[in-house]
Design brief:
heterotrimer, A: 172 residues, alpha/beta, four-stranded parallel sheet, 6 helices, 4 strands, B: 166 residues, Beta Polymerase, domain 2, five-stranded mixed sheet, two-stranded parallel sheet, 3 helices, 9 strands
Chain lengths: 172, 166, 436
């Protein structure tokens, strides 16, 4: 109890004290920022691991480089339940329509991370069989280069994306 | 058997047997393929009953234009043999060995997919690795590598097969 | 009570009319149709981009048709446009869970064409990293097989152990995966200073962890129920379908290229090849666990030999041996500063030679070879054709997964669809190798 309270008798709180308490215990924000924060906190990736980068993505979700720190260890197989598609690996011509279909099945809001150089630009495989960058098929938000990128590099890309999502304005 | 002994054993039956780099290679005619493979599998001591691999190479300006090679392995005798069959460019047909070696099913489909060689008697000769509506046979030497040429401001970089290196 | 019974009878009579649409008009039997279900290519349990077309009668698989090619990369065509050393970087990404084996098979083939042999120390290091790769690959198999069967904690344990091995790989080669460490003529660099220490720690920790797996899974009732009698592939079927590796050894055939047609000095190491007779998914699990132990045994022997085999790790011939002296600088592995000074300031011929070695590389004498190694999935073979150029003419990769997936219908037709997941997991296919 503050010492000055004992001079005379006060029952209840002063307006200043109420103000202080409200500021400490209640978070006031805009709806945009609240929604942005919630969206980035629990993004669920869709399982789209294709090749070597998929193994590094699995390592990123496993114990040592834990994606669960950001609520992302839950890879949803159904695209309807996912909001992030990490294209991990080389996309062949046969797989391209499948990729587009999975992207279309995902519900808004959705984001795409292109993991590895093969997904970003075709990688070392400039040939007939590989799509030279998935941004020719789906819109990509973050490109993570590497062959394969270390799980830490993928995490940096994910955090960059989460930063964008948090500050985006979903209701404008 | 070591390669020299195996080659001696085969020379009685095949005309063209070569031993190089510890490997035995026999070249046989297309029409004799099935009989000779059966002999290799059944002959005691040779016992080459396991087909490891089946593939082809394209030689566009040479005769024969295609060489199909069968890598046989003996699980019991621990030796290997390569059998090669040459095909002309106008007649890329060869009998299928899936009856004798079921493992050849997908290998022959892949060779058809990449080179356009038709295996007569194959139960289902369709494309396997490329999309079903792909046109062309990419591993032939007259097909380009493909891919997208890289764009730089003010410069053009040709695709790798036209860069003139090596 | 009786009113309920008559109500039920009336309801049943009404229902009988509803099923009339599904009855065969001639016999009155219910018509049965099979379903064709598409599993994949995007599926959490098909071990990669494998598509299975299953014709199901209820829960039983009648026919299974695997459709592959969703990861076809054109590696074989790409190697025809690159130098022989650059081919290593392409080939290593085929079967991406066992990159060292891809590199070893390819380099042994190129060395046979060149008529050279890697120095003894390089051979010991090659065996060391390959056997560690085998352990790492089997750990990924265990992790993903556990995940597909629902044992999520096995997934986390498997990847935890694998991180220890990948840490060592990163120290030795600079990369966690797809290393391009084994080159024609030897290996890129010798072990770093902290290498032996890390290797000693690894050898101390890993055997206990494998014991933990056995304790967790060997007699686990759920694991046994889901794996015993599932995905049976007899020895005759396996040999006819060209299947090799742990699947063949779990069917009773003791075929292992390391013992049958040895390469890279394997005949000088003391190890056993585990074989079981049941030919089901559980037997394959036991074979792979035992193979991990035997691999660690080989690693211990190779490690012990390192001190007794000093010397270079790359062949001395300057035309073949590539890359040149490397060292670890502040920003990673790069050209040794002494070498850079030599080519930039001291010797013009050395600079010209360096330029030719980078852009063209060695010209391999004409010929063809088939070089096979025993990868964690079976016989991994390379049919390499050279015409005397600086580039390969044809590199055909005989990948074990390509042939093993062909055996999948034989394993699952006639069984339940849930068993097809367990059977596929026990095959351990890596789609990068299947499609190349």
């Amino acid at each position: 109890m503050p010492a000055e309270r004992f001079e005379g008798v006060h029952l209840g709180k002063t307006p200043e004290e109420i103000q202080e308490e409200v500021e400490r215990g209640v978070l006031l924000t805009t709806l945009d920022r609240a929604v942005g924060w919630a969206r980035k906190q629990s993004m669920w990736p869709a399982t789209f691991g294709l090749a070597c980068c998929a193994i590094e993505m699995m390592s990123a979700g496993a114990g040592q480089y834990d994606l669960s720190r950001w609520g992302m260890e839950l890879f949803r197989a159904s695209p309807r339940q996912a909001d992030l598609m990490i294209v991990a690996g080389r996309v062949s011509q046969k797989m391209a329509p499948v990729l587009r279909r999975i992207y279309d099945q995902m519900v808004d809001p959705k984001w795409v991370i292109s993991m590895g150089v093969c997904a970003s630009a075709g990688g070392m495989f400039t040939n007939y069989a590989i799509v030279q960058g998935v941004d020719t098929i789906v819109p990509v938000d973050v490109y993570v280069p590497g062959c394969p990128p270390k799980p830490e590099m993928l995490m940096y890309g994910i955090l960059k994306l989460q930063g964008t999502v948090r500050t985006s304005e979903p209701f404008r | 058997m070591n390669p020299a002994e195996l080659a001696e054993r085969l020379r009685g039956r095949f005309a063209d047997v070569v031993v190089a780099r510890d490997e035995v290679t026999a070249v046989i005619e297309r029409d004799a393929l099935l009989d000779e493979l059966a002999w290799c599998r059944d002959e005691p001591g040779v016992e080459l009953g396991f087909l490891s691999s089946l593939s082809a190479t394209h030689w566009p300006d040479a005769e024969p234009a295609f060489w199909i090679d069968y890598e046989l392995r003996s699980i019991t005798r621990m030796h290997r043999l390569r059998i090669k069959v040459g095909l002309a460019a106008e007649d890329p047909h060869v009998p299928s060995v899936t009856g004798m070696f079921p493992t050849a099913n997908w290998h022959e489909r892949e060779t058809f997919d990449f080179f356009g060689i038709v295996f007569d008697g194959h139960p289902e000769l369709t494309r396997i690795l490329l999309p079903d509506d792909w046109v062309g046979h990419p591993l032939r030497k007259d097909e380009p590598l493909g891919g997208v040429p890289t764009w730089f401001h003010g410069a053009t970089v040709p695709p790798i097969d036209e860069r003139g290196m090596a | 009570m009786s009113s309920d019974a008559s109500d039920l009878a009336a309801a049943r009579d009404g229902l009988a009319d509803l099923t009339a649409a599904f009855r065969d008009p001639a016999t009155g039997e219910l018509r049965q149709e099979t379903m064709i279900i598409n599993m994949g290519p995007q599926h959490p349990s098909t071990h990669g981009v494998l598509r299975l077309l299953l014709e199901l009668d209820g829960e039983t698989v009648i026919t299974c048709k695997p459709v592959i090619g969703y990861l076809h990369t054109g590696i074989e065509k790409n190697t025809e446009y690159r130098t022989w050393v650059q081919g290593v970087t392409y080939v290593t990404r085929a079967d991406y869970l066992s990159p060292f084996f891809n590199e070893l098979g390819y380099c042994l083939g190129v060395e046979r064409l060149l008529g050279i042999e890697a120095p003894p120390r390089a051979q010991v290091i090659r065996v060391l990293v390959c056997e560690l790769n085998r352990v790492a690959s089997h750990l990924v198999w265990l992790a993903t097989a556990g995940l597909e069967l629902g044992a999520v904690s096995v997934m986390l344990y498997g990847f935890r152990e694998r991180e220890i091995i990948l840490d060592l790989f990163e120290a030795i080669t600079g990369l966690r995966m797809n290393h391009a460490y084994i080159r024609p003529g030897g290996v890129v660099m010798d072990l770093p200073e902290e290498g032996p220490e890390k290797l000693r720690d690894l050898l101390r920790v890993l055997p206990g962890r494998i014991d933990d797996y056995e304790t967790l899974l060997d007699d686990n009732p759920i694991w046994r129920e889901r794996n015993e009698g599932v995905g049976v592939l007899t020895a005759e079927q396996a040999l006819a379908l060209g299947v090799t590796g742990p699947i063949l050894r779990a069917a009773g055939v003791a075929a292992d290229l390391r013992k049958d047609i040895p390469y890279a000095g394997y005949e000088t190491y003391d190890f056993e090849v585990p074989v079981r007779a049941e030919a089901d998914s559980y037997a394959r699990y036991r074979v792979r666990i035992e193979e991990m132990r035997q691999s660690l045994r080989i690693v211990e022997q190779a490690f012990a030999r390192l001190d007794d085999t000093p010397g270079p790790v790359m062949i001395g011939d300057p035309k073949v041996g590539w890359p040149p002296t490397l060292s670890i600088g502040p920003d990673g592995i790069g050209n040794d500063p002494a070498y850079l000074r030599h080519i930039m300031e001291e010797s013009m011929e050395a600079l010209i030679h360096h330029f030719k070695a980078v852009t063209q590389g060695v010209a391999v004498p004409p010929g063809e070879v088939y070089s096979a190694v025993e990868s964690p999935r079976g016989e991994l073979g390379f049919h390499i054709v050279s015409t005397g150029e600086h580039r390969p003419y044809r590199v055909k990769i005989r990948d074990p997964s390509f042939v093993n997936v062909q055996a999948l219908p034989a394993m699952i037709e006639g069984y339940l669809v849930a068993d097809s997941i367990a059977a596929n997991a026990s095959l351990d296919p890596v789609m990068g190798g299947v499609d190349r």
